[in-house]
Amino acid sequence: MPANLTPEYLEAEREYKSVSTHAEKIAALERMLSTVPKHKGTEKLQADIKRRLSQARKESQKKGAAHSVPFYLVEREGAGQVALVGPPNSGKSQLVCSLTHARPEVADYPFTTRLPTPGMMSFENVQIQLVDLPPLSAEFMEPWLPQVIRNAHAGLLVVGLEDAAVLDEIEFILETLHKLRLPVPALLVGNKLDLPGAEENFAALEDLYRDRFRCLPVSAATGRNLDRFARTVFDLLGIVRVYTKAPGRTADLTAPFLLRRGQTVHDAARLVHKDFAEKLKFARLFHVSGDRDGLMVERHHVVDDGDILEFHI
């Protein structure tokens, strides 16, 4: 029986291969075990993960290491974890304050943020975790910062549009990420759009970097474009919301099952119940727009955001 490993499992496995400390390996193995599909085809794989996890815990205890995940690693929550990377005084903390219930310290002086601060941002009916991070600067960088960036589903590069040194700072950050073999953010966020000259500065940045990033201007202070920010981050994560319904009933559109772009009807059935995935004959596909009869689809049909599935087993 094929394993049909999920993107979440494969990402955890890649992380396990890239980390070095016992605590990081234990955290990655625990994520692998929690995300591996539970069926006969993965029984040997599950046993191997459990064996490696047990060995890692024993080695951690022998070396007297802490039993918990390091303080700087933020447990993933919600539909996805997004790390905010940027130079000093770019307004990352204000952005997290404006979009979540988290309250990182906000000040006009650099290096205010010294620890990762997570907060949950709402977008329609999903929650996305934003993580405010200490600045990445030539003057100083927290030694644990690369691992937090690596652990996130995605990263954003946040810069202040009033900063005269913004070009040098962007290039330093990109060079540092490359040296550390960290993923380059797909989105460049120009913050402080409310300040004089910010719109002209953003236009210049967009001309320079539009081939490398998607660029978005915002003002965390006034709220301008924060709705576009939330939508863009949602799209960046590749989240697909799928709803289910029983025959003859309407779907509950308040609590979607969350998949990633490219996943299938079979993946959605597995999230509902493993028996659905194993016994699935076909599904009827409806759309939120309200089509009445539904389209018959096979288990390998790729789902789209907003699909409603009626499983037949």
Walk me through what this model shows.
The chain is an alpha/beta fold. The chain folds into three domains: 7-62, no CATH class; 81-237, 3-Layer(aba) Sandwich (Rossmann fold), CATH 3.40.50.300; 239-312, Ubiquitin-like (UB roll), CATH 3.10.20.30. The protein is 36% helix and 19% strand. It has helices spanning 7-18, 22-35, 43-62, 92-99, 145-151, 166-179, 198-209, 226-237, 265-272, 274-279, and strands at 81-85, 117-123, 126-132, 154-160, 187-191, 214-217, 239-244, 257-260, 282-287, 295-297, 307-312. The chain has a six-stranded mixed beta sheet, sandwiched between helices. A five-stranded mixed beta sheet has the order 8-7-11-9-10. Strand 2 (117-123) and strand 3 (126-132) form a beta hairpin. Helix 1 packs antiparallel against helix 2 (22-35) and helix 2 (22-35) runs antiparallel to helix 3 (43-62).
| Largest sheet properties | 6 strands, mixed
Q: What is the first-to-last residue Cα distance?
A: 19 Å
Tally of individual helices: 10
Poorly predicted segments: none
The tally of strands reads 11
Specify the CATH homologous superfamily of the largest domain.
Answer: P-loop containing nucleotide triphosphate hydrolases
CATH top level of the largest domain is Alpha Beta
Overall domain count = 3
- Based on CA atoms alone, the radius of gyration comes out at 22 Å
